[in-house]
Protein 1
Amino acid sequence: MLINKLSEINKGNINDQIEAIVLITEIKLKLTKNEKKYADLSLQDASKKIEAKCWEVDENENFLLSLKANEAVKIKAVVGEYQGSIQLTIKEMERAKEGEVNIRSLIPTSDWGIDSMKKGLQFFYDKVQSPHLRLLLDLMIFSDDHYERFSTYPAARRVHHNFYHGLLQHVLEVLKFSYTVATTKRLTDRQIERLIVMGFLHDWAKIFEYKPLPESGFTEEGTMLGHIFMGAHKTLNVMKEIADFDEEDKLIILNGILGHHGKLEFGSPVLPKTVEAQILHHADIMSGDVESIQSFMSEDGNNEESFTGRLWNMGTEYYKKG
């Protein structure tokens, strides 16, 4: 059975043999307790990620060792289940021929539309009137050095917005939520400007923390330093380049970046110390949590149960039939 999307596979396909073109995101050779070699594989297309096993390693070891992460392959596999989740058992695998598939078509991508999102960025940028704050955004967001990465990188390795244009979508969500609260609570124009700048910059350093898709995982810099420190550090350096940058704005914006995780145990080295920083923190949480739930529901869509499985990061399951 030819599968166009991995999301088409469900528990009704158990024991079926399927064919598909997928992207290998990770491959590890391991040993069973009986010292038999097998391969653990992580596969994906634009619709879903899925785990797979290959038990016939001895006759395929050289081929498996030659494979690199983020290669497109054609597979024939049997659908199975392990601990409640779909798992594939690979029977045949070969490299996809050049021109047979576009790698970008196998990468999950925001469905918001890039042109619409860029208009959204412009909308919030236009709300910032203070010259030194506009220049900060010009240098950090809209410069040739950063704009392409800011527009294309994921916002996380997994859990939420872990797709092409994911960081951009997350930032826009945070800006929308923040702006709604700020105007509802009648913050001053200057507070709203600061909050918008914080929204733009709070996760900006993820363009240095993460590897570009289709790669996954952290860079060495990201592993060692993390986006919160890098974001505040690099923002401070740019602020120093701007003549007569307002000292109060500097402190408030940096506190917002450093405190956006909201708690010391969640990785923020300081707590939010302003109403703007507190709004930013809650907007960030709302964006991430809602996306996480919706993403999990989408992946679990073929399961006929009323509730999703338990989301490890949320600590509960969610009703799907609303």
Protein 2
Amino acid sequence: MSCPFNKESLAQLKAFVSFCSSNPNVLHDPDLSFFKQYLESLGASIPSPKDMPKEDVKVEEVSPEVEEKNESEPESDLELDTEGCIEPDKEDPSQEMGDFSKEPTEADVESASEKRSEAIAAFSEGDYSKALELFTEAIKLNPTSAVLYVKRGQTYLKLNKPNACIKDCSRALELNPDSAAAYKFRGRAYRLIAEWEKAAKDLRQASNIDFDEQTDEWLKEVTPNAQKIEQHKLKRERKRLEKEERERAERLRKIREAREKAANEAGQQKGQTQSGNDTFTPPGGMQDFYKLLQDPEIMTAFQDPEVAAAFQDISTNPANFIKYQSNPKVMALISKLTSKLQGSGMNFPGFPGAGGAAGGGFPGGFPGFPGGNFNQKPPAPDDDGLD
């Protein structure tokens, strides 16, 4: 099977493959998704962008080092008010979460309610350790009560155990998604460990469900830090998108340059091939006749198989010209050739209207005529042009 591409297309393809080899990230460009899918259908393994070296993308606004630092800047590097924050507590394996699947009996519910009352009394007296124990006993008896988890979570807050509080309030919200108290105390716990966005979200939700002054006060306290972080993330996301757009534009620029380079190389190669091949170059005044054959109207006429065959026949044996005197298409082309020959001042003996029978002045035919003799070389000096 012969190659369906010309040399110029092959040169461009070669340049594109070479570019992909040195810049494999380009295969992840959305505009080249069809090519990536084709490679993968053949079993090729396309490395992910993180596994490949980064492209050398020029960034004029900021240097790569500064940009990378800005994009990776953690929230802790922002100017946040962290007054009142505490060191997060480690997970306590002894924290009793109860049997979530247990269906408490009426006796269990009643006993749990009694324990809860005792725990609230201890909490009011400031005995948080005792309150914690009593709430835990109540949870064991009735693990389906969201209120018990919320109250114990509030107790954990008093004991400076925000993570334990978060765990209890999260369980409470599984049991009752509309628990304003669970959102409130979990939001406060997030604030203590500097999780500003989560704190603002929970406290805002608590206020929406059941507004109270303390929740509103806590929300106002965390909102400035939460907004700073949100703005920082939006800015970082904007920079990320801008960087991706710059990289994409750079990749497209390189592809265009590669195509232009390939086209230039193909043009040079084509010129070298034409100058170095074995195609016949007519001598002397014959070059003018060959230029005449490149006339668009004449070339179009030769696209007709009937006309091309007739001139091939005449070029083989000039005497065959008489066979085509009644053919209007052939005679029209001969008339056009004759007119152009006379108008150009060229004199080719043997051509109709220019000194003789058609083709008589071209032993062996018309080298370069469409129909099969484009690359035919002229005969030897002692050849009379006849077989």
Protein 3
Amino acid sequence: MPFRPDHIVHFPTLAGIRPPRVTRVIAWLIAIGIGAVAAILFFVPWVQTSPGAGQVAALDPQDRVQAVTALVPGRVERWYVQDGDRVRRGDPIARIVDNDPNLLARLAAERAQVVAEIAAAEQAMAVAQIDVGRSAQLLAEGLAARRDYEASQIKVADHRAKLAEARAKLTRVDVTLNRQSVQTVRAPRDGRIQSINAAAGATLVAAGDILAMIAPETPVRIVELMVDGRDIAVIRPGRPVRLAFEGWPAIQFSGWPSVAQGMFDGRVRSIDPSAQATGLFRVLVEPMPGKPAWPDADFVRLGGKVRGWIQMETVSVGYELWRQLNDFPLEFRRPADDAKGPAPDPVVKVKK
């Protein structure tokens, strides 16, 4: 007679060792969970990424924060701008006066004196040249000695040297006068005054001292990411990058970029050939063509912090976990090499 479930009441020992329903449900859940985890590990794709932190920078050196320096030594007499003011190229920033208020007048008087010396030297040299011609004629007629003719030539050379010295002195005076006359410091480019060295207004300044800092308002921005040296060997220009800017809300899943929110796209522009003092390598990231533009410069300013993930190869979740646990480098595949196939054995030429 076949065994039916209601017959188990006649076997109390068998009924006692039968597992409860809750235990069977938990066992089924564990088995299904193990199968699901195994399927995820082997079949779900994962995008490997190389993370890095950095900041927003300007690509053009002229778009970076610049120091406006004093052109001549002296004292700041007047400021034309304040912190935060917008300036155009050539707008005055500060006026510097020399410690000696009569310096320009004395330089002008010195220049007039040098000009008079040049005129006198030119006239004297012209007369000396006439004497040379007269002495040459008298020497040809036998009415003058050769010594007199040579003495007149020496006088011409002497006056020529004095004229050259006077002209060089005039050049030096003009250079000094021009430098002292350019006492108004002007903005080298369009931008905004970031800070002013207020101490310069009460103390003496030398040529080259910083008076103010000017920052451009519409720079061409890039991102500087600092990447670990273990990953830098497999990173190449053109690799896509996902960026999260400071102050901009974002949710990032590095392995599944399609579900990330608030992220922006970029691509690797260049990689520094040598490491920084911290041992990290600087990677420059530019905007990705054809993708949404980065936030406006009013929201993402120069110097703002950025988190970035350089996207590499696509592998399975299980392989990525195994790589992370063993601290292995990123997977690297070169499509060009794969298309070419294995490289042929090198041919060794033997010299006869």
